[in-house]
Amino acid sequence: MRLYTHWLRIKLISLVINGFKKYMILFFTSPPLQPFPWSRCSVPKLKRSVLGFLPVLSWLPRYSLRDNALGDLTSGISVGIMHLPQGMAYALLASVPPVFGLYTSFYPVLVYFIFGTSRHISIGTFAVISIMIGSVTEKLAPDSNFPSLNETNGTGGVDLAARDAYRVQIAASTTVLCGLFQILLGMMRFGFVVTYLSEPLVRGYMTGAATHVVASQLKYVFGIDPARFSGPLSQVYLLIDICRLLPETNIGALVVSLVALVVLITVKELNTCYEKKLPMPIPIELIVVSPQHLTMISVILLKPPSPPDISLWGSVVGDAFAVAIVGYAINISLGKTFGLKHGYKVDSNQELVALGLSNTAGGFFQCYAVTSSLSRSLIQESTGGKTQVAGVISSVIVLVTVLQLGTLFEELPKAVLACIVFVNLKGMFRQFLDIPALWKSNKVDLMVWLVTLVCTVLLNLDIGLAASIAFSLLTVIFRSQLPRYSILGRVPGTELYLDTDTYEEVKEIPGVIIFRSSTTMYYTNAELYLDALLEKVVSGCVCVSGCVCTGSDQDSEIGSYGDNHITQAASTGSESESGKSADNSTHTIILDLSTASFVDTVTVKILKNIFRDYKEIGIDVYLAGCQVCVVEQLSIAGFFCESIPKSCLFATVHDAVLHSLRPRHYASSPPPVTMPSTQWLPLVSSLSL
């Protein structure tokens, strides 16, 4: 009996294991299965959820070595070589030791490989994000907080080891909080929040941040030690202090900087000119930072993960949120650009989660915040990269460098690293060319670009970003408050109604005023809408007497209701335009609400007043082109009543015009059945809400 029980247990365990194996194979390789009969959660839904959260499972099993391996290998090596000098140089912007820039180029890349949806962007250090982190670390850990006594001459100094350790702790804590913000926003499907950062705003902000980067690196180029400033106008004070210290310039540092700049710019231009002929770009940045004077190779270990200092979160919460939004904006803009170019979809919400997980995991390993880099992403794409396997290969190169050559990069000439930063800002400073382009295309966007640049430079990165977003939203409000109001006329021979001031060929329908606003009417512009309508009605209400419902063909069905009558009325009106009488023969106002996407309570009240006021003087008012959601909102708000029936709604302006030109004795009853109903029938007669 015991043997039988033991055999039965083994058999059951074997069945469970084999069943689980078969299920996992089917789950990841087969088309969607039928849902479980005992559960509302189906296998296809579960599969979509898992593959959505772990995109690597959707493309890695189908990875083609023949098609992708060589391109990813070449691309990974090229990007990895770029990671090394850029990581160390941008670490200076974050005010942490250079080796932590290498850590930042390793851990987050692996996390994004698993959770990211873009195949071509290169995650890692970036100048704008680095300078934002650096502003936080220098603000909370200034040199004055770490005094030390020089044992040699008894003078005071700075305890660099303690200062750098605390700054790394601040950067890591800020990065973890930034990642948590991004994960939370991604899980709440808040990927659309980046839409509030328009392209002119983002480009202006990046250009302004580039000026911060340059100002922060000038001290290394000239070999001077200016004072640290924070708050608004800090960049102005910094430049003044640098100019004051120019007589104390270190000639050696300046010469090294100039030589490095010449070499870097020359070789980078050669890389650009011979891009198609070179198998991979010349790694000039790595060459100029190679410590040739060091020959002994040392081995260091990667630092173990450590929890962030939660007590710092209260001091960095605003900066962390700003880094989260700016980093995501840069990341998704690059990702969607490459996605459109190569024909694949980039999930905005999953990108937010992937970037958040990269920052959160990296923060535990003492990394600082990351995002995608334009220069590295372009190299990854142009050298043949097809998937994020290239990112893994680049991280392997960084890992080997950290393990085998890590101590060689602990002490590097900061002047050379500053020059590397300057050269890599070329793309950002080329964005100044946006100014003439925006001047020709859209002056409001140009104003947003310039205001963002000025706010970022003068008010610092955090306050400047908030002020720029506020100004950008104000431009939207002002543009919606000052829309263009127009009277529409009919294009002869068509059912099109266009602005009479813009198009000379259109003809107004005598006795009918068709009024349209270029934007949605809501509480900020409702009164302006009413005033503009009154002005248009007053200026256009004088018409030719008897031009409507006159003529020998009044009893003719086509003549009274069809295009012939509209054409006849329009031509009669145009012929007599120079001799308009003083009789007010305007009998209909048609409000074209095709541009309205919603209505609020103020809009409903304004529309009720329009119907009431014009009805008192014998003018009919109709609504045309309303979207279904607008009609529903009007109905819910109690707009329709006995005095405003639903028969005042029409699907198009043309339907409303045809209805308004019918004989007046049909005003309260339907036209004859022999009439083509599609020419006059109001919207509500065929659509029940």
From TrEMBL:
InterPro entries, per the entry: S04_transporter_CS, SLC26A/SulP_dom, SLC26A/SulP_fam, STAS_dom, STAS_dom_sf
Places the protein is found: Membrane
Pfam families (UniProt xref): STAS (PF01740), Sulfate_transp (PF00916)
Domain annotation STAS: ranges: 502-660
Keywords of the record: Membrane, Transmembrane, Transmembrane helix
Superkingdom per UniProt: Eukaryota
GO MF term (any one): secondary active sulfate transmembrane transporter activity
Residue spans crossing the bilayer: 12-30, 88-115, 176-197, 251-270, 282-304, 310-331, 448-478
Keyword Ribonucleoprotein set for record: no
Membrane topology label: Multi-pass membrane protein
Entry GO terms, CC: membrane
Protein name, entry field: STAS domain-containing protein
Biological source species: Esox lucius (Northern pike)
